[in-house]
Amino acid sequence: MYGQQIATGCIDLNDDHSDLNRPAAPPQRPVAAINALCAGTPCGTQCGAPPWGSFAPPYHGTLSHTCTRPMNDAPDSNETRVAVLVDCDNTSPEILEYALRVVAQFGRVVLRRGYGNHNTLANKWQEALVRLAFTPCLQYQYAAGKNTADIALALDAMEAMFDGRADTFCLVTSDSDFAYLCRKLRERGATVHIVGEAKTPDALRNASDQFFEWAKPVAPAPVALSVEKVVSKAAAAKVEQHKTAAKLRPKFVIQAVDLLAGDTPEGKVGLGPLGAYLKRTDPAFSPQAYNHSGLLDMIRTYDLLVAQQEPGGHWSVKLAPKKDAVPGQVSLGAADH
Predict the structure, then answer these.
(1) I want to staple 50 with a disulfide (CB 3.0 to 4.6 A). Which of 27, 54, 157, 192 is the partner?
(2) Which of 134, 133, 136, 190 is nearest to 159 (CA)?
(3) Is 31 within 8 Å of 44 (Cβ atoms)?
(4) Distance, CA of 21 to CA of 17 (rounded, Å)
């Protein structure tokens, strides 16, 4: 522009000539080159496409870049999202593992929180919450006799439902004060499960979609061992160390089949869903850890489980008929521990 003004002899003194410092326009890039870089891959992830800032406009043609390959690490949008909210002031830490095993059949646990006052969370609940990856939600009591933890649990549950973080809720409590919360969640389309003790009132049981009763395990009475028995056990342990590792049969596999197959008309569960459930309950679960080559090989070692191949080629698992079970093998033949 400035050169043209000089050539014509018409110089505008009010012109600040800012165009002299303006960088040259970037070269126009054909859209085909952009689309070719990212064809069939998620842009900027697997294909290694440069950031969009390096493709400065203008373009030749219409930008029609689409990524057609699904990202492997994208979560399944149809997967049920479960929130486990624990009333720590009302129950004991031993219930946590049972609650996680129960809800693993419904979907992926995305929210784990434990609510209580300082005395509750700092003493008996601290180890369990840390070990099982729960977020402790400390609520101080502003006045004597006022339980602020219940209010915080209820508000967090409604918030998680409204913002879409969870669509299934598991409340671990025996407090009937949460019955109204259960009804409000279900009115909004959420599914509510309760894990509680035998003392749970009917008002809370009937307010949920499903109630799971947990019984506190009874500690076995201590058995006095003689010196001879202790020495013989130590000698047997040394012999076992030299033997080949035996194939172990954990009892929780039988409990998983009983839980999953009990709600089906056929009384059986697919081998794939069973494996997925076991991974949800314990992310570190692997048949190799119990000296098995795979889950099917592991199932076949149980006396109380039956694996059968379906017409489609897939495998299913069910509990063995009681008449086929040999008496006395419930604890040894069915599971080693």
Answers:
(1) 54
(2) 190
(3) no
(4) 8
pLDDT for residue 8 is more than 50: no
How far apart (Å, rounded) are the C-alpha atoms in residues 50 and 98?
49
pLDDT in tens, 90-135: 999 999 999 999 999 999 999 999 999 988 898 889 999 999 999 9
With 0-12 CB in 10 A as exposed, 13-18 as middle and 19+ as buried, what is 285?
middle
Rounded distance, CA 83 to CA 101, Å?
13
CA atoms of 207 and 140, how far apart (whole Å)? 28
Give the whole-angstrom CA distance, residue 204 versus residue 47. Answer: 53
Q: What is the band of 289 on the pLDDT scale with cuts at 50, 70, 90?
A: confident
Structure tokens at 319: 């509990």
**Separation of alpha carbons 137 and 135, rounded Å:** 6
Phi and psi at 247, nearest 5°, equal -80, 120
Does the pLDDT of residue 310 top 60, yes or no? Answer: yes
pLDDT confidence band for 30 (50 / 70 / 90): low
Q: Token pair of 280, please?
A: 């949800």
User: pLDDT confidence of 51, banded at 50, 70, 90?
Assistant: very low
Q: How confident is the model at residue 25 (pLDDT cuts 50, 70, 90)?
A: low
Q: Which tokens go with 64?
A: 């029609």
| CB-CB contact of 85 with 110 (8 Å) | no
More confident residue, 240 or 83: 83
CA dihedral sign, ordered 292, 293, 297, 299:
positive
CB 150 within 8 A of CB 181: no
The helix (H) or strand (E) run that includes residue 136 is strand 135-138
| DSSP-derived secondary structure letter, 289 | G
